[in-house]
């Protein structure tokens, strides 16, 4: 049972805004607040939802039964303090969504990389198959009318399971997809062992006679699943491995043909030719995982639906998103912020546009991540012909004082040293903020170049500003 009035703090965030839209569609009176106005806030206001800019105790309407909040909202937030004083129930947005769909069939996609794209692909595929799911994604999907949300009419939830602060444990999947496992979020998980243990806990929450689908080519995912075989078997969990040339579901080496990434997939006597629009080997792996969900679903999904929906999948906001052609320069915006994601995105860019010089404008995300993964970042930029490194994006409420001593200038210095040792000759430039980064891009980009604006902070504004002309 959902209260008739729900107040959302941090309503402009990607996940809380989806919850707010979903509740609004069900006739719940929704209000909210955020520190700044953004496009999500404007979308919510267009739906008739009252959103206050700035946080104050008076923002919570009388009669509010539940307060939903995001990671960016600490207990000391004046609205959370007011809710506590008034005895109003408070719930994180992931826990709220998990409770809302507790009795539903759940398809949960988690892992370090590729969660958003794989979730959007699975949702798109199941919509095309007539399953009518509700889909909640940690980004915007052009084919979803709600952007980060598709509202379905069935008792089925497809959701991106965020591993940050263990939010994925809010869900109890009938189908769990693990894309890959690589140490991330060092501010929460001090080492790979602690990080991997979270995914073990998620596997423990798969419902009996459920399905686990995982990336077999990923060492850490494979080792984790093998270590849990007995427990999975005891609960009658069906385990499906997906891999290139090996696994229950296999796909061939991807190749580019007519501007699409192509691969052949098979499971048993089932066979499928995939030709996807989104570039890169990682996206082919995402597509293979999505197809594996459809092949191992409760009902038979026709292969033409799988190939058609995945083949026309348009991609996601800030996932190798083509923004515009600016004076003969391709502007691409991407959310990559982990070293592996950076390297894979550069690899995809070079494969898709082999004749183009690649200018990478990258903004590291969080001091803790930059410090914890510092050495891994050094080779991650090798695919860039020009590197513009903006200062680290500071995430409010998620930074520790002991991590403040790391900077983008230090990272750039070590990259320069490595370039010298490796014999790499290219331009490396430091930008103290996105405004400077934009100027540096303007000064360097020339016709035929590919400019990648990359990072999970506010660096995307550079791409949007360039494309306003």
UniProtKB/TrEMBL annotation:
Pfam families reported in the protein's UniProt record: Mur_ligase, Mur_ligase_C, Mur_ligase_M
Stretches assigned to the Mur ligase N-terminal catalytic domain: 6-101
Keyword presence, Ligase: yes
Keywords, sorted A to Z: ATP-binding, Cell cycle, Cell division, Cell shape, Cell wall biogenesis/degradation, Cytoplasm, Ligase, Nucleotide-binding, Peptidoglycan synthesis
Catalytic reaction list: UDP-N-acetyl-alpha-D-muramate + L-alanine + ATP = UDP-N-acetyl-alpha-D-muramoyl-L-alanine + ADP + phosphate + H(+)
Protein name: UDP-N-acetylmuramate--L-alanine ligase
Signal peptide start and end residues: none
Record-annotated Mur ligase C-terminal domain positions: 318-457
Source superkingdom: Bacteria
Record SUPFAM superfamilies: MurCD N-terminal domain, MurD-like peptide ligases, catalytic domain, MurD-like peptide ligases, peptide-binding domain
This protein's pathway: Cell wall biogenesis; peptidoglycan biosynthesis
Residue ranges of domain Mur ligase central in the record: 109-293
Compartments where found: Cytoplasm
């Amino acid at each position: 049972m959902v209260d008739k009035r729900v107040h959302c703090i941090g309503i402009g965030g990607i996940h809380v805004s989806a919850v707010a839209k979903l509740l609004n569609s069900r006739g719940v009176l929704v209000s909210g607040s955020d520190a700044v106005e953004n496009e999500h806030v404007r979308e919510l206001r267009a739906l008739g939802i009252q959103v206050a800019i700035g946080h104050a105790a008076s923002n919570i309407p009388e009669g509010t039964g539940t307060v939903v909040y995001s990671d960016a909202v600490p207990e000391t937030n004046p609205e959370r303090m007011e809710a506590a004083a008034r005895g109003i129930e408070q719930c994180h947005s992931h826990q709220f969504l998990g409770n809302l769909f507790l009795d539903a069939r759940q398809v949960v996609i988690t892992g370090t990389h590729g969660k958003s794209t794989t979730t959007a692909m699975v949702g798109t595929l199941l919509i095309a198959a007539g399953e009518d799911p509700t889909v909640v994604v940690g980004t915007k999907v052009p084919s979803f009318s709600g952007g980060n949300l598709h509202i379905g009419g069935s008792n089925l939830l497809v959701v991106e399971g965020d591993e940050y602060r263990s939010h994925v444990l809010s869900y109890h999947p009938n189908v769990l997809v693990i894309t890959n496992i690589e140490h991330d979020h060092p501010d929460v998980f001090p080492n790979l062992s602690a990080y991997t243990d979270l995914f073990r806990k998620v596997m423990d929450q798969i419902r009996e006679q459920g399905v686990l689908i995982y990336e077999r080519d990923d060492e850490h995912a494979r080792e984790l699943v093998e270590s849990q075989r007995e427990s999975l078997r005891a609960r009658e969990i069906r385990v499906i491995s997906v891999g290139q040339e090996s696994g229950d579901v296999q796909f061939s080496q991807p190749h580019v043909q007519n501007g699409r990434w192509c691969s052949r997939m098979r499971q048993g006597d089932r066979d499928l030719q995939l030709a996807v629009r989104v570039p890169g080997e990682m996206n082919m792996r995402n597509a293979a995982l999505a197809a594996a969900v459809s092949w191992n679903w409760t009902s038979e999904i026709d292969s033409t639906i799988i190939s058609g929906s995945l083949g026309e999948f348009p991609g996601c906001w800030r996932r190798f998103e083509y923004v515009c052609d600016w004076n003969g320069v391709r502007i691409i915006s991407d959310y990559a912020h982990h070293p592996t994601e950076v390297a894979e995105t550069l690899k995809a860019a070079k494969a898709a546009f082999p004749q183009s010089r690649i200018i990478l404008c990258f903004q590291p995300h969080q001091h803790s991540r930059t410090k914890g993964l510092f050495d891994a970042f050094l080779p991650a930029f090798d695919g860039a012909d020009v590197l513009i490194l903006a200062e680290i994006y500071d995430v409010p409420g998620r930074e520790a004082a002991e991590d403040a001593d790391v900077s983008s200038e230090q990272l750039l210095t070590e990259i320069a040293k490595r370039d010298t040792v490796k014999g790499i000759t290219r331009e490396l430039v430091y930008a103290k903020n996105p405004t400077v980064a934009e100027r540096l891009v303007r000064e360097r980009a020339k016709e035929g170049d590919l400019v990648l604006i990359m990072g999970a902070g506010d660096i995307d504004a550079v791409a949007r500003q360039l494309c306003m002309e």
